[in-house]
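Next comes a single protein record:
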Amino acid sequence: MNGTVTAVSSNSEYSFTKPNRAGITLLAGLGVAGDVHAGVTVKHRSRVAQDPTQPNLRQVHLIHEELFAEVAEEGFRVTPGDLGENITTRGVDLLGLPVGTLLRIGDEAVLEVTGLRNPCLQIDAFQDGLLKRVVGRDEAGNIVRKAGIMSVVRVGGVVRPGDRLTVVLPDEPHRPLDRV
């Protein structure tokens, strides 16, 4: 299973959106160099308030570009970096990957998938009503989160738009993604 990186984004300050960059540098065990969410321990404000010593399982946020087309059909305009992701992809079903999947990106970088992003109310502050489009329920009543996946950096490297993304599945049995 292969895909492509369509955009990369980072921000050194806390804000909902992240500006696009020509490239980002991933640092093993930390995240995106210069990004506010990089670190060994959790950096998301709500998580820090709960327990600042938690390991940072949310070092790098990825979103599939296909989501933007899906929400556009309902009148929303979302572009890379708007939802705070670091890497925007095309061609890979990110939400269908199991925990522990490795994502090889470009020449060197390797991410390990840790779970689903748990969307928050800031999405509605960005565009009213968007939260209901990225979080919903399936026919059985289970919560479905569509706002991307989270990962940690196993091998650092530079990632740029146009880089190839290769999926390496973990050994079975696979564990489905849950929020992290």
Observations:
- The helical segments are 45-50, 66-72, 122-126, 131-134.
- The mean pLDDT is 95.
- Residues 66-72 form the longest helix (7 residues).
- The chain has one domain: 2-168.
